């Protein structure tokens, strides 16, 4: 990980490590304007980072870039032996790590400092926009992705599979007898059950998978690079972990799961319909075993 790399500079502020007069600037005003125009072209964090890394690599031998802040982190390029960490203002909590395969020269350090200064105002805006976007895509109760986030991920997954020929899986999860918990113990207890279920689902997935609260006591998962075996294992893991979760075990909560795999030429409705059929069949069994359509 980048934080384990040997730092060649750990500045607490982007001001003050290399300070030069206007006459000492290595990047001309025209070039600064060009870089700035590239960086302010989008508030999308992924695009910003990619553009910034390209601007850096065109001038200095940087091979990777990581931006960390209290709510998250994003990375571009590759890790390397040396890193230089620079903050984005003392109060922002944003830290940028620049990776190099070898220790940069004093001249390269100067160029990096100037490019970092140019990027700071845009970077603050990008991170603020990213935080707001993340909040808007999260379910407020469970912190899983919400319906809008699900639609976005599913759309991108369909595009990726159609382009590359890879497959992915969809899990539809419905909690059995959840209404009885709300009716008997109240909605506050029901909320705790939903939060516990979200924790179970998250713990049962791989790092590359996505979990969403679809609505009420329904959850969906998008499983990347999946096959029927992977979907079955994840489904079994969810059920097993539910038995180990105290509040779910206390209420004897169970779930029904429907699974389907992307097939060439699929549309979202077809993928949903196959998973929904499996979910319905799962609910009819006394001892549900997830099957894949």
What are the main properties of this structure?
293 residues, alpha+beta, four-stranded antiparallel β-sheet, 9 helices, 9 strands, elongated, disordered N terminus
Can you describe what's shown?
It is an enzyme of class 2 (transferase). Pfam families: GGDEF. This is diguanylate cyclase. 32% of the residues are buried. A hairpin with a 2-residue loop joins strand 2 and strand 3 (72-77). Mean pLDDT is 87; it is low at 1-21. The chain has 293 residues and is of the alpha+beta class. The radius of gyration is 24 Å and the shape is elongated. It has nine helices and nine strands. Strands 1-4-5-2-3 form a five-stranded mixed β-sheet, covered by helices on one side. It has a four-stranded antiparallel β-sheet with strand order 7-8-6-9, with helices on both faces. It starts with 5 loop residues before the first strand and ends in a 9-residue tail after the last helix. Helix 2 (45-57) runs antiparallel to helix 3 (106-136), helix 5 runs antiparallel to helix 6 and helix 6 packs across helix 7.
Can you describe this structure in just a few lines?
This protein has 293 residues and is of the alpha+beta class.
Count, helices = 9
Helix and strand pattern: EHHEEEEHHEHHEEHHEH
Q: Whole-number radius of gyration? A: 24 Å
Based on secondary structure, the structural category is alpha+beta
* Main sheet record: 5 strands, mixed
**Low-pLDDT sequence parts:** 1-21
Beta percentage is 15-25%
Overall average pLDDT: 87
Write out the strand line-up for the largest beta sheet, numbering strands in chain order: 1-4-5-2-3
Portion in helices: 40-55%
Morphology call: elongated
What is the tally of beta strands?
Answer: 9
Distance between the termini: 39 Å
């Amino acid at each position: 990980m980048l934080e384990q790399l040997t730092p060649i500079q750990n500045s607490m502020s982007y001001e003050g490590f290399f300070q030069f007069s206007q006459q000492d600037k290595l990047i001309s005003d025209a070039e600064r304007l060009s870089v700035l125009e590239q960086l302010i072209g989008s508030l999308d964090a992924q695009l910003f980072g990619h553009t910034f890394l390209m601007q850096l690599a065109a001038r200095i031998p940087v091979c990777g870039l990581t931006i960390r802040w209290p709510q998250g982190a994003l990375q571009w390029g590759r890790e390397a032996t040396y890193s230089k960490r620079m903050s984005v203002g003392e109060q922002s909590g944003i830290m940028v790590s620049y990776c190099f395969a070898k220790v940069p020269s004093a001249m390269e350090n100067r160029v990096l400092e100037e490019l970092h200064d140019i990027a700071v105002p845009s970077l603050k805006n990008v991170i603020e926009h990213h935080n707001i976007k993340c909040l808007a895509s999260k379910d407020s109760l469970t912190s899983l992705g919400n319906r809008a986030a699900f639609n976005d991920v599913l759309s991108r997954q369909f595009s990726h599979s159609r382009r590359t020929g890879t497959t992915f899986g969809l899990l539809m999860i419905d909690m059995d007898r959840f209404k009885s918990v709300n009716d008997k113990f109240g909605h506050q207890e029901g909320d705790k059950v939903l939060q516990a279920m979200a924790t179970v689902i998250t713990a049962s997935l791989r790092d590359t998978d996505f979990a969403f609260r679809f609505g009420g006591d329904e959850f969906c998962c998008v499983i990347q690079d999946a096959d029927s075996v992977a979907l079955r294992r994840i489904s079994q893991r969810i059920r097993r972990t539910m038995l180990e979760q105290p509040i779910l075990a206390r209420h004897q909560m169970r779930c029904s799961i429907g699974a389907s795999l992307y097939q060439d030429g699929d549309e979202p409705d077809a993928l949903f319909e196959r998973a929904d059929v499996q979910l319905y069949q799962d609910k009819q069994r006394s001892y549900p075993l997830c099957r894949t359509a």
